[in-house]
Amino acid sequence: MGVPKFYRYISERYPCLSEKLREFQIPEFDNLYLDMNGIIHVCSHPDDNPLQSTPEETIFKDIFYYIELMFRLIQPKKLFMMAVDGVAPRAKMNQQRGRRFRTAKDAEIAAARVMAKSGSVDPEERFDSNCITPGTEFMDKLHQQLKYFIVYKISTDKLWQRPKIILSGHDTPGEGEHKIMDYIRYLRSRDDWQPNTRHCLHGLDADLVMLGLCSHELHFSLLREEVKFGRNQKRPANPEEISYELLHLSLMRDYLDLEFQTLKDTLPFPYDLEKVIDDWVLMGFLVGNDFIPNLPSLHINENALHNLYQLYIEVLPILGGYINEAGVLNLERFEKYMNKLAEFDFEHFKEIESDLKYFEMKTSNKKMKNSTEALNDCSSKNEELMNMINSTKSAEFSIELLLSMGWLCDTEEDLIKWDEPETEDDFMKEFTKFKAKYYKEKMHFKEVNEEVLQRQAECYIRAIQWNLHYYYHGCPSWSWYYPYHYAPFISDIKDFTRLGQLDFELGMPFQPFQQLLGVLPPGSRTILPEAFRHLMVEPESPILRFYPENFVTDLNGKQQEWEAVVLLPFIEQEILVSAMEPYYKDLTPDEKRRNKHGPMAIYEYTSEDLGVREAPDYFPPVLSNHAKETIIFLKEIKVPSEKLKWGVLPGARESYWYGFPTLKFIPFTGKLKDAKVQVFQQPSRGLNMMLYLKGVKAVSLEEAANKYLDKEVYVGWPHMVKAFCVISTNSKVTLSDDGSVVRSDLTRPEQFQWSMVGQELALKHRNRLGIEIGHVDVVIFAKKLIGAKYEFNENGEAVKKFNWASTATSHPLQTIVDNVNLLPCEKVCGGQPDNQVPLHVLFPRGQVAFLMKPELYGVEVKIRESSNKGTVTIKVQNEAEPNIDSAYALKEEYYEQYYQGSAAATMCGLGSSHLLSRITGTILIQTFENDPHSKVNIGLNMKFNKFSQEVVGYTKKMNGRFWNYSDKAVQVIKEYIEKFPDVVRYLCNHNEDVFMKKDFFASSENADTKIQEILKWLSDHPYSKAERRSVGSNILSEVVVKELEKIVTSDGWRNENTSILEVKPGELMLPVSQLNLMEPDSSAQHLLLDRVVNIRECHPVPLGLKGFIIGIETKDDEQATLYDISFDVPIINGFQLHTEEKRCYRLTRHAFINLSHGRR
């Protein structure tokens, strides 16, 4: 379920809310929940191309890979739940129906465009994303694949053996995220529930914020891909390269406390943040969601939420209590709130009426554009004016725009008094007419009277109560739905207190095929069982009217087409069910099986071998199954209302797990301000909740040094990270051996530099985090915690010690937090330091490790035993290494020469490097004269300045400025010039951003043919398949990589010898399951053709697998540099980079030992 623009709104209003994290920074969680449908959509049609075709096997593998990545990132300790959307409540089906009809229409339009260009489209090859609906053959196959995948992971991966794993599939009714919340409510009702459980929910819907908050669990975070707004924002193809954000609901709670802080002084009853949060959830419904339309004039981008919050602050003190009582609407209090909110209706209409009168006057003497007759009666323009007003962001026009359109005169005679005052009665009459027109035109009421309006009010209030019940208790009715595309005016939602308790009949969810027929468009009817397809298209079908060939959409005050209301007829359940009844007998046995609801499945590890688990298509069987399956039905986890537990549970502590940020510990005041804080790489559009630190006073360097130097503190408030202080400014300060402070004064240039550091920190806090920290007098430099490792004394005793970063980062003194105890996080910071661990626990028999002795550097070993004298006996598995001298020789022989633009231009016979740059870049041609969006690119596309990317083997950007070209690139350019001389000749004298096809080709008919010829040549040319990499990357040539692959796949070099050694424990490195910033050997340099071994366990790359570095993609952050490694054997989820098989994978330097470094 989604609330358009909600995520952006809260992220900009509360700037610290989300945290962009790398893998090693993600805190420890007990429970991980995946709302699976977002993952399914991303993996099946990642580019949102309606004509895209992805093989089914690839889709399943990508879904598995994504799940595995999420699990590896979070590594839940207790519970892992995957919830796929099942049959939804009837209230949701209206939105599902509109979305699927729009998807089919988009595909139809896209196909028409392709037909116009190339003349052919194969509908059989297209992946119809509408098949991601419960009951389809695709979803049934996916369900079987997911069950197999869970068994496979539990049986083969020790990390998956720790938590309980739940699969709620497409055959279990309910939306994925609400099935998750049902299960959380069930867990909270149990006597053994731990109130400080840490939850992580992955999903892409913005309203997961509301669901998480109404659980009232204190340690709840949302994991989602990093959001970047703006044009041409593309998602990385490799899930491991995606940046993730954690949205911390602990911070959201703090921000909401700030948002409504004035209530603490104005309420005549106790202030309760939990109940304020419940009312905040209720207010979010008024701007619309998947079940109910937004109220007229309430749009998020027009400040609706801000206005709702301010009104709440004003009205709550006179209500006598809170409105949302744990999912039950207090009608009397809500009616008072709505009566006050109705003033928005009046104000909105005043603006519209004022504009109408003004425009009527302005157009009364104005001629229509290209017309010779004056507009004597502008009343006929009212409807068009209203449409224009309603389609704008607010009820105001740009006068300049209307003048340019020919609507208005701009003479002095026009500037007369036009807004004559009216009586209140006249105003209300006009307002009543205005609303009556809305109801008749939008909602098709023949008559608008008090009885009709009262029914509308009751219907809307029922919708609000249904939503609250759905969020707080679970689905109250499977059959209820809001029967209109539009909501009533706020001023007409009144006199509803008399309704009393609003009850719903639970009923039964649709059967899967009933929902399919209810939501699918005719264009997707092949997804249905054949027995029902004719009901969508045959003239005699009793439900044919539910499937119009054409439909209209209505922006209804919105700005984007995807926000528009899809005006489809509502499905009538009884008629639909009756129409289907005669055809159930024609279903196949497999289809009858698919048309049933099913249970959830719980999987737990067992040491017992359960035998062979056969696999579905594409995958091998699990020979030794260790996953015990238990079936659980929805009714077993349904908690009666009287047993549900509300609010923060007893025993829950607002203390503070490491990795869960909080606004506590530093005093501040909060104030909303139009501060333009940059949250999504651009200034915010609305107000920001700015934090102003209190009590910031000047502190001498000596005081700061004595308090913090050589101490552990927390930096980065409110996203606190443990760090070790080493320096304070604006003078260098160190501690002498006796503990005294040594101060060395700075030179004038150094003083200026230090002052700039302080200013930059203040600016960063203000512009990026929305925190005003004041003047920075003292800057603390601290080394952040990057993990923990074991150190061994002479007796071989292991003691865990914190490991700090090698370089220090700067932090304003006023944001340093000390004297606070955060609960330790084993995953991020290694738990508590100074913990002694016996050697036999650290190095159990059979444990794999890696030897770091110089003569056996990086060799894989197995532990035999740990002695009480502080040594470890190991079995060394010393493998032979392949001879790659031929690869080194080819590297030298095939060294790729790159030429500056001027030299490359000369080699290609071009007169200037500018022309070369144009040919190798983008050449846009508008293919239809009246359609500015119909552009195709006939350039070579060898360089990407905007994304700072090169084409491997063809282009390189030197010094961040100049593009250089390889011999291969020169050859392609020469071919292009020879093949399409007309294009090159025209470019010699023209430099437009976008060309018309007639510019290059005289005949329009010939132009289309020629453009298609160019596009086909470009797509067929081998260079178009070359990989794009970040500028500054380095990669071996194809011939060298193929030589490496030939060497490692040949026979004769593989042999192994074993030996038994006794070593010191400090000479051993254990595998890592969770990535951190501790490198196996910080002194190692990593070069192309270096031999490496993977030390990550429970990873797509098997532990101990060896390979060669064939590519290096540099990053601004050196720690994030990626290394392309070609491994000795193909790997699941690997990729091809100049190789015949999928044996390549990308790792950071923390995940491997460089064997070549040990030999150097």
Question: How is this fold's topology laid out?
Answer:
Elements: H1 6-13, E1 18-21, E2 31-35, H2 36-44, H3 56-74, E3 79-83, H4 90-118, H5 137-156, E4 164-168, H6 176-189, E5 198-202, H7 208-214, E6 219-225, E7 244-248, H8 249-259, H9 263-266, H10 273-285, H11 304-315, E8 324-325, E9 328-329, H12 331-341, H13 343-363, H14 382-391, H15 399-404, H16 424-442, H17 450-472, H18 512-519, H19 530-533, E10 552-554, E11 565-567, H20 573-580, H21 589-594, E12 600-605, E13 627-632, H22 634-637, E14 668-673, E15 688-693, H23 701-708, E16 712-715, E17 721-729, E18 732-735, E19 741-744, H24 748-769, E20 771-772, E21 779-792, E22 798-804, E23 809-812, H25 826-829, E24 836-837, H26 839-842, E25 848-851, E26 859-866, E27 872-879, H27 885-893, E28 898-900, H28 901-907, H29 913-919, E29 924-928, E30 931-937, E31 943-944, E32 949-951, E33 955-958, E34 962-966, H30 967-979, H31 981-987, E35 994-996, H32 997-1000, H33 1004-1020, E36 1028-1030, E37 1034-1035, H34 1038-1048, E38 1056-1063, E39 1068-1069, E40 1091-1094, E41 1106-1113, E42 1122-1127, E43 1144-1147, E44 1152-1154, H35 1155-1159
Parallel strand pairs: 2-3, 2-5, 3-4, 5-6, 15-20, 29-35
Antiparallel strand pairs: 1-7, 4-12, 6-7, 8-9, 10-11, 12-13, 14-15, 16-17, 17-21, 18-19, 21-22, 21-23, 22-24, 25-26, 25-39, 26-27, 27-38, 28-34, 29-30, 31-32, 32-36, 33-34, 37-41, 40-41, 40-44, 41-42, 42-43
Helix pairs in contact: 2-3, 11-12, 13-14, 27-34, 28-29
